[in-house]
Design a protein that fits this description.
Helix content is 17%, strand content 24%. By secondary structure, the protein is an alpha/beta fold. The strands form 5 sheets. Strands 2, 3, 4, 11 and 12 form a 5-stranded parallel β-sheet that branches. A 4-stranded antiparallel β-sheet has the order 1-15-18-17. A 4-stranded mixed β-sheet has the order 7-8-10-9. Helix 1 (82-95) runs parallel beside helix 2 (135-146) and helix 1 packs parallel to helix 5 (307-318). The structure holds zinc ion (ZN).
Length: 427
């Protein structure tokens, strides 16, 4: 609510009444026609969700070593510290979201297990990570473990690139011609990612993935029988985020903002505001895609104790999206996926005092995605009340500015044929 003193905020949360489908006595808005209502200025939105995705988390060295066959890393002129992890958590707490930290884990290797996976690092079989073994690992691991609701660990990679004979090519999972690395290597890199997580008790294997250097093929690449998404799916990953513009075989994507690759939803990252080495970033450019993509240095400060000054700039930049009728910040990546498919495919129609939902296109998607629920926003000139039929209003809140903006969190009822929201005027 900071910085909004000129506005009057009315916030309330209403628990869904049991049997919400039973209609009470209500005064009907008789002047309502359809679509946009003239006198009440009524407008219905299924807002586009915005998910924050932060790349290249996990390095301890900030050095860009690409000129001497070490990885690109984050390119900053200091080492990373646990406060850089706390910065992600603080961003999440301030906005009520769960940012995705697309993580690189080679510099977390306490036991030099990566010497057995020479394609994963610049040292190959002579891998020695002792330089980066210290208390900071435990401190950062504790931050990740204790703040799971504001930090989603997303698979990015082990060493970010792919090494053969002492030299790397881009990138770890897919080469620069769009061909996935040999499946046996992909499997090994995933095995070792999991083993590195276990060294630090970082939790269960992630459900999300961001390909390094955005080298990725949608569906199988040339010469490969299986897609990377299929290999990830076997590990429980059900969501990939990457820019469609640079994705190989992007013509196979079924919908504008997302597609399903062997049932793994793949969502467009769009274009980041900042290059990966902008340190720090001061965001101002309007978001045009559902992903707010950035790299770790963009949200950190050269002096780690001042990280929160940069985080605050991102908070100030992102918070107003929750107050726009047509957009919202996704609370986590699961809600993000659900909301995005509803935003893209679910239709609403305003008929009299009814908002009528048509889920027929959404329900054709795999994995029951979209079956849980969605958020709608209703903008009106006058206050209104909501009741539901065939769907549950889990909670609602409203903001009064020049108009009223109601946000309704809806939960779908299994096997319900149709869903309606019934509007009534409060005064
Ligand atoms: Zn990266």
């Amino acid at each position: 609510m900071t910085g909004s003193s000129r506005r009057k905020f009315v916030k309330k949360t209403v628990k869904a009444a049991a049997g919400a489908s039973i209609l009470g006595n209500m005064q009907i808005i008789s002047s309502c026609t359809s679509g946009k209502n003239a006198s009440d200025g009524l407008e219905i939105f299924i807002p586009m969700p915005v998910q924050v995705v932060i790349d290249d988390v996990g390095w301890w060295s900030g050095t860009d070593g690409s000129e001497w066959q070490e990885p690109y890393r984050t390119g900053i002129n200091r080492n990373h510290v646990p406060a850089d992890y706390q910065a992600i958590v603080e961003l999440g707490k301030s906005l009520g979201i769960r940012p995705q930290a697309a993580t690189i884990l080679c510099e977390w290797d306490k036991y030099n297990i990566l010497s057995q996976l020479p394609t994963s690092t610049w040292m190959g079989e002579k891998w020695d990570n002792s330089k980066w073994v210290g208390d900071w690992l435990d401190e950062a691991a504790e931050i990740i473990r204790n703040n799971k609701e504001h930090f989603e660990l997303t698979v990015h990679g082990i060493g970010h690139e792919y090494w053969e004979n002492g030299a790397f090519t881009r990138a770890e999972w897919t080469d620069s011609n769009g061909q996935m690395r040999p499946a046996v290597q992909v499997e090994l890199h995933l095995d070792y990612f999991e083993r590195l997580m276990k060294q630090h008790n970082l939790g269960s294997f992630p459900k999300s993935f961001v390909p390094t250097a955005f080298r990725h093929s949608f569906g199988p690449s040339e010469g490969r029988k299986i897609s990377l998404a299929s290999l990830l799916r076997k590990r429980g990953i059900n969501y990939i985020n990457s820019p469609f513009e640079s994705m190989y075989n992007s013509h196979r994507i079924q919908h504008k903002l997302f597609g399903f690759d062997d049932d793994v939803i793949t969502i467009d990252r769009g274009k980041d505001e900042f290059p990966w080495l902008t340190f720090p970033g001061n965001p101002s450019k309007g978001l045009t895609s559902p992903t707010c993509g950035l790299h770790w240095p963009n949200m950190l400060h050269p002096e780690p104790e001042r990280n929160l000054e940069v985080v605050q700039k991102w908070v100030n930049y992102l918070k107003p999206y929750n107050e726009k009728p047509e957009m919202m910040l996704a609370p986590d990546s699961f809600c993000f996926q659900q909301q995005l498919v509803h935003h893209s495919l679910t239709k609403t129609e305003l008929k009299g005092n009814l908002i009528i939902f048509d889920f027929s296109e959404t329900d054709k998607l795999p994995n029951r995605i979209g079956k849980e629920g969605l958020i709608i926003k209703v903008q009106t000139n006058k206050p209104v009340q909501f009741k539901s039929n065939g769907i549950i209003i889990e909670s609602q809140s409203s903001v009064q500015n020049e108009k009223y903006l109601f946000t309704l969190k809806l939960r779908r009822i299994a096997n319900s044929k149709g869903a309606q929201i019934i509007l009534s005027r409060l005064m």
